[in-house]
Amino acid sequence: MAVVWVTGASSGLGRYTAEALLADGWLVVGGARSFQDEEKDGMHRLHLDVSDGGSVRRFADEACARFGAPDALVNAAGVLCIGACEDYSEEELRRVMEINFFGTARMVKAALPLMREKGRGRVVNFSSINGLLAVPFQGAYTASKHAVEGYSEALRMELLPQGVEVMLVEPGDHRGGSRAYRPLSAGCAPCYEESRRRAAARIARDEDGGAYPARLGRRVAAALRQKRLPLRLRVAQLPQHGAVFLHDLLPGGLFTRLVSRYYGVRGPGGAGKRQ
Ligand SMILES: NC(=O)c1ccc[n+]([C@@H]2O[C@H](COP(=O)([O-])OP(=O)(O)OC[C@H]3O[C@@H](n4cnc5c(N)ncnc54)[C@H](OP(=O)(O)O)[C@@H]3O)[C@@H](O)[C@H]2O)c1
């Protein structure tokens, strides 16, 4: 039975991806901080904090000892922090980068030697549409997902001769993610208060009306059935595909004005002030 490690398998897209892989016959070793060491609903659950190198090593050692080397790794663990770039504390910025970017890199480092021994492997890193373009009040998240994009593309090139393939998953808005992973930044200067409130409401509305996560899980599982992995698997609704297209097409100044208006960004002095 092929073995896949799935991080962030306790909630949202990571959970749905794990379920789709189980349905496809994979032996799924799911990792999350809220998991205890147990088997439940067909998934082998192990405690994992991707922001802690020791926890990643323990997860990898335990998973390997019990189920053998992984054939695939899916890095889905991820968090947001909704706030203005200026307001983020260094701790908030680091937390998002630690989980979304360094967590991904830690898991890759743990899995690759095991995959190389097997002579094959597949790495699936969750990015986001925000890995391709920024939105206001998601600066930390956007930065972390841009980092995941660049890292994964380089990784794919380096691993080409070694039989290990790398794929980026770029979801648009999906429902089912937990609000617990979308905290507001602790600080918020008065000049950002109204804009952040509107942007947070827009983010919540877009996710609530987003695509169905089970479908994304099935798309990832289907990609892992293919002989070759594409570099990118974008799973988004039409407006988000359109946004990526316009981001590459329009002058940057115009694109950023359009997006900040969409998220309700206003100047401190009042309505509709141009940024
Ligand atoms: N939902 C969307 O609209 C959307 C759009 C684009 C991209 N994505 C990406 O898809 C992935 C899943 O997001 P989601 O919104 O669907 O799920 P979510 O409900 O926000 O779940 C986040 C997952 O990450 C895990 N996690 C958080 N910190 C962790 C840590 N330090 N170590 C290990 N696991 C940790 C959580 O489990 P524990 O708390 O148990 O550790 C949970 O399983 C993320 O990478 C996200 O950036 C989501």
CATH architecture: 3-Layer(aba) Sandwich
CATH superfamily: NAD(P)-binding Rossmann-like Domain
Report how far apart the termini are: 55 Å
Structural class: alpha/beta
In helices, the fraction of residues equals 40-55%
| CATH top level assignment | Alpha Beta
Query: CATH topology, anyone?
Result: Rossmann fold
What integer value in Å does the Rg equal? 19 Å
What's the count of strands?
A: 8
| Net shape | globular
Low-pLDDT segments, ≥5 res: 271-275
Number of domains: 1
Ligand inventory: NADP nicotinamide-adenine-dinucleotide phosphate
Helix-strand blueprint:
Elements: E1 3-7, H1 12-23, E2 27-32, E3 38-40, E4 43-47, H2 53-67, E5 72-75, H3 90-118, E6 121-126, H4 139-159, E7 164-171, H5 190-208, H6 213-225, E8 232-235, H7 238-249, H8 252-262
Parallel strand pairs: 1-2, 1-5, 2-4, 5-6, 6-7, 7-8
Antiparallel strand pairs: 3-4
Characterization of the model:
By secondary structure, this protein is of the alpha/beta class. It has a single domain (3-189, 212-237), classed as Rossmann fold, CATH 3.40.50.720. Helix content is 48%, strand content 15%. It contains 8 helices and 8 strands, in the order βαβββαβαβαβααβαα. The protein has helices at residues 12-23, 53-67, 90-118, 139-159, 190-208, 213-225, 238-249, 252-262; strands spanning 3-7, 27-32, 38-40, 43-47, 72-75, 121-126, 164-171, 232-235. Strands 3-4-2-1-5-6-7-8 form an 8-stranded mixed sheet, with helices on both faces. Helix 3 (90-118) links the parallel strand 5 and strand 6 (121-126). Helix 1 (12-23) packs across helix 6 (213-225) and helix 3 packs parallel to helix 4. The longest helix has 29 residues, at 90-118. The N and C termini lie far apart (55 Å). Mean pLDDT is 96; it is low at 271-275. NADP nicotinamide-adenine-dinucleotide phosphate binds next to helix 1.
